[in-house]
Specification:
- The protein folds into two domains: 115 residues, D-amino Acid Aminotransferase, Chain A, domain 1, CATH 3.30.470.10; 155 residues, D-amino Acid Aminotransferase, subunit A, domain 2 (D-amino Acid Aminotransferase, Chain A, domain 2, Alpha-Beta Barrel), CATH 3.20.10.10.
- It is 26% helix and 27% strand.
- It is built from seven helices and 14 strands.
């Protein structure tokens, strides 16, 4: 069972509700961030809090001490006896626009966090890889982690054969609905540069680890047409870590099976995470 921190207290999620006047409901104004905890220890807390704060400010939401309050609520929530799954959780933090729209600025936000069991991809998805659906759409305001995912969700409606849509405006691959995208082509890892995509926390770790272990990484958006020459592709994210992609639309990536690059980076990421968690007080 999940728990929620709302209006200054923890309570079951069924007891938490936004008023119908909140701009998250009436206009889709809100930002969020998701982190994972392991045994009650949050991974990369400060990186996620920084991104949440930046998203709110870019969206015109006045945050005051909201992010500090969220940080404390996460710490308190992960210590609770009713914390789900022994503290192996997904922690989602939300800041809404509140009830006031002051010429596109939102001076009175609401915030809440939801702590729930994490639901990472199945082991079979790592073994077999996943498929993505390319679309010419682009994610609005890519530097803001907005709650509004409607454009991306609509692309894959009724498509159980694909995991997420892959934004390819003008034929250039940026990101997926909820993940960063990488293609390994001719010995180089390509991924779209910051500013055109959200600054994924896992994306940043993977880039740093890849470079530290001898991979060449170029922050340049690969083209959809380049995927026929790719030997591997994968997506990264908080819940996904490094998840292999074996098909994009009708294009089979490499051999059609997960390859050694994604496998090694997945291992390096998980080893790095374990070291950071072990070093936490």
């Amino acid at each position: 069972m999940s728990i929620c921190f709302f209006e200054g207290a923890f309570r079951p999620t069924k007891e938490c509700a936004l008023p119908v006047t909140d701009l998250a409901i009436t206009r889709g104004v809100g930002v969020f961030d998701t982190l994972r905890s392991f045994g009650g220890k949050p991974f990369a807390l400060e990186e996620h809090m920084k991104r949440l704060e930046e998203s709110a400010l870019r969206a015109g939401i006045a945050i005051g001490d909201v992010v500090d309050n969220i940080r404390q609520a996460i710490a308190d929530g992960l210590k609770r006896s009713d914390c789900p799954n022994g503290g192996n959780c997904a922690v989602k933090s939300y800041i809404t626009g509140g009830d006031t729209n002051d010429l596109g600025m939102f001076p009175n936000p609401r915030y809440f966090i939801v702590i729930d069991s994490a639901n990472p991809p199945l082991d079979e998805e790592y073994r077999a890889g996943i498929a993505l659906l390319p679309t010419a759409e682009t994610r609005p305001y890519p530097t803001i982690k907005s709650i509004n995912y409607l454009i991306g969700i609509m692309q894959c409606a009724g498509r159980p054969d694909v995991r997420e849509c892959l934004y390819c405006p003008g034929g250039e691959i940026t990101e997926t609905l909820a993940s960063s995208f990488f293609a390994h082509i001719g010995g180089t890892l390509f991924t779209a540069p910051l500013g055109t995509v959200l600054g994924g926390v896992t994306r940043g770790f993977v880039i740093d680890l890849a470079r530290a272990y001898g991979f060449k990484v170029v922050e340049l958006a690969p083209k959809l047409a380049d995927l026929a020459d790719a030997d591997e592709a994968f997506i990264t994210g908080t819940l996904k870590d490094v998840l292999p992609v074996v098909r994009v639309g009708d294009t089979v990536i490499g051999s059609g099976k997960p390859g050694p690059v994604s496998a090694r980076l997945l291992r390096l990421l998980r080893e790095y995470r374990e070291r950071r968690l072990t070093s936490q007080p």
